[in-house]
């Protein structure tokens, strides 16, 4: 009788083991499906992010472009006037310049006009050095103003710098 009990207990153990194996295989299959789903979702997020970045790059200057078109319209209107005095042209150009400066302020573009300041290679580009009674490295003239966008130099100011005699 001991042999029958051993055979039945062996069958019972084998049956339990088979059930455990089946459950584990089901769990593995479920986990594999979750991994595949997560991987697909990550790829979709990556693709959407790349598309969003591409759109942002393409249309980053859209608002600025719309504003700058107003300046272009003002210049076109000034050129369309057949006869006018030099004074009226000057007034028109002055208004257009103010319009442009307002756009710059709106988009945080700041002018660098460093006349009389100490030379800073981060914001200025020395075109010439001139012997002067002034202290060394002082900016004597500004040939071309520079511009900064959100604390980043768009274009350095072109300057003449003093040097000792």
UniProtKB/TrEMBL annotation:
<dbReference type="InterPro" id="IPR013805">
    <property type="entry name" value="GrpE_CC"/>
</dbReference>
<comment type="subunit">
    <text>Homodimer.</text>
</comment>
<dbReference type="Pfam" id="PF01025">
    <property type="entry name" value="GrpE"/>
</dbReference>
<keyword id="KW-0346">Stress response</keyword>
<dbReference type="GO" id="GO:0005829">
    <property type="term" value="C:cytosol"/>
</dbReference>
<keyword id="KW-0175">Coiled coil</keyword>
<feature type="coiled-coil region">
    <location>
        <begin position="14"/>
        <end position="41"/>
    </location>
</feature>
<comment type="function">
    <text>Participates actively in the response to hyperosmotic and heat shock by preventing the aggregation of stress-denatured proteins, in association with DnaK and GrpE. It is the nucleotide exchange factor for DnaK and may function as a thermosensor. Unfolded proteins bind initially to DnaJ; upon interaction with the DnaJ-bound protein, DnaK hydrolyzes its bound ATP, resulting in the formation of a stable complex. GrpE releases ADP from DnaK; ATP binding to DnaK triggers the release of the substrate protein, thus completing the reaction cycle.</text>
</comment>
<keyword id="KW-0963">Cytoplasm</keyword>
<comment type="similarity">
    <text>Belongs to the GrpE family.</text>
</comment>
<dbReference type="GO" id="GO:0051087">
    <property type="term" value="F:protein-folding chaperone binding"/>
</dbReference>
<dbReference type="GO" id="GO:0000774">
    <property type="term" value="F:adenyl-nucleotide exchange factor activity"/>
</dbReference>
<dbReference type="GO" id="GO:0051082">
    <property type="term" value="F:unfolded protein binding"/>
</dbReference>
<dbReference type="InterPro" id="IPR009012">
    <property type="entry name" value="GrpE_head"/>
</dbReference>
<dbReference type="InterPro" id="IPR000740">
    <property type="entry name" value="GrpE"/>
</dbReference>
<protein>
    <recommendedName>
        <fullName>Protein GrpE</fullName>
    </recommendedName>
</protein>
<dbReference type="GO" id="GO:0006457">
    <property type="term" value="P:protein folding"/>
</dbReference>
<keyword id="KW-0143">Chaperone</keyword>
<dbReference type="GO" id="GO:0042803">
    <property type="term" value="F:protein homodimerization activity"/>
</dbReference>
């Amino acid at each position: 009788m001991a042999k029958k009990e051993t055979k039945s207990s062996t069958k019972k153990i084998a049956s339990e083991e088979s059930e455990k194996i089946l459950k584990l295989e089901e769990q593995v299959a479920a986990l594999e499906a979750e991994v595949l789903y997560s991987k697909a979702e990550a790829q979709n997020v990556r693709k959407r992010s790349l598309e969003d970045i591409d759109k942002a790059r393409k249309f980053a200057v859209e608002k600025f472009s719309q504003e700058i078109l107003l300046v272009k319209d003002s210049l076109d209107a000034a050129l369309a006037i057949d006869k006018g005095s030099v004074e009226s042209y000057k007034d028109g150009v002055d208004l257009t310049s103010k319009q442009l400066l307002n756009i710059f302020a709106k988009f945080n573009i700041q002018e660098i006009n460093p006349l009389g300041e100490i030379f800073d290679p981060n914001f200025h580009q020395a075109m010439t050095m001139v012997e002067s009674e002034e202290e060394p490295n002082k900016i004597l003239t500004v040939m071309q103003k520079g511009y900064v966008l959100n604390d980043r130099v768009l274009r350095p100011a072109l300057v003449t710098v003093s040097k000792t005699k």
